[in-house]
Amino acid sequence: MESISAWQLTALCGIVSWVVVSSFFNVTQKLRSLLQSWVSHHVVTGTPLIIQIQKYHNGFLDSLFSGLSCIVSVPFYTAFLPLLFWTGHGKLARQMTLLMAFCDYLGNCIKDVVSAPRPSSPPIRRITATKDEEDNAMEYGLPSSHTLNTVCLSGFLLYYVLSYTQLESAFLNFAGVLLVSLLVSLIGFGRIYLGMHSLIDVISGLAMGLVILAFWLIVHEYVDNFIVSGQNVTTFWGALSFLLLFAYPTPEFPTPSFEFHTAFNGVALGIVTGVQQTYHQFHHEAVPRVFTTQLPFSTFVGRMLVGIPTILVVKFCSKALAKWILPIVSNALGIPIRSTTYIPTLGKSSNGKNSKKSDDFKQAGYMQKLFFFSNQEAFDIDTGIRFLQYAGLAWAVVDLVPSLFSQLSL
């Protein structure tokens, strides 16, 4: 059996080394001390601009920018990407999923490192039309995730369409770039209009998005080739996903950002695992695509009617299974755990009582000592539950559901 390759081992060891070194030298706190006051100053000085823009508010603009924010939000992509897989455009779907996970990780890391506030409300008027926007408002401000994600995903979608159709018309290429630029501009302006971000947040999101997009356009073919035909793909990606749960900065105060990262980290693992196992059956380049004679729209509707309920059931079952298994495994390995949401009986510690510093913790076992750099008395089991829940959902999208399509001749 082939052993893990040198570059994979180097990458994993590099992440472990970075987690240990950054924790030992308090890298997050030092970076925050350099950046937070500067960013906060620009947020405060940018408040008059937001107030000036909001003087022209009306119901139409409120609905327009709230709607635009919804169609480029994480929940939208979570619903849209499974459908993209089932249209037959598997390469585009998996590339956009991994790019989304990459953007989510980097953007949220920067947010929690800097820990800079959003514009103060009041005096600005903050519009949160959905529960997702209310959760976003609990995160730190810089960079604007909506702007960053829009730049990356719409930019990559344009690149894919131009490459797939092989259009040689300079006018159509220019029109595509203009359309993407218009969408990014509307999203960025809308985030300021809604009172969700200051100008410095949007500019940072735009700059980061362009850098990430340029990087992804260089590496995406190498990443895709590794997923569909590489060695040790599932083992490597599983280890990578696990380490990325630790290679994340601690914010000044808790926010939902880490939860979003955990979810998309799990999605990436589920997609990679499922595609790697079933590429030649369901995800190769010759599969039928929607709006063709092999996959008419009526058949695609049938896929949605079968696929969407299936992945929701798998998500529920994955969560229930993780809530049952993870506490048992953690206790067996001597890892102290707690739960903030999913398991009320673990609200404070693994035995349901107030957690405390004691010899029991010091002698909790080798696995817990392995993570001494985390400086935690107990690990939040909700992280593992959320991770496995979304990994199971993503696996169902690319493995279980296509198998059902095959059995049902969809």
From TrEMBL:
Which family is it part of?
Belongs to the type 2 lipid phosphate phosphatase family.
Subcellular location field: Endoplasmic reticulum membrane
Supply one GO CC term from the record: endoplasmic reticulum membrane
Q: Which residues form the Phosphatidic acid phosphatase type 2/haloperoxidase domain?
A: 93-217
Q: What is this protein called?
A: Dihydrosphingosine 1-phosphate phosphatase
Task: Keyword check for RNA-binding, yes or no.
Answer: no
What one GO molecular function would you report for this record?
sphingosine-1-phosphate phosphatase activity
- UniProt keyword annotations, A-Z: Endoplasmic reticulum, Hydrolase, Membrane, Transmembrane, Transmembrane helix
Which coarse location class describes where this protein primarily resides?
A: endoplasmic reticulum
Q: Where are the transmembrane segments?
A: 6-27, 64-86, 146-164, 171-193, 199-219, 226-248
* Topology versus the membrane: Multi-pass membrane protein
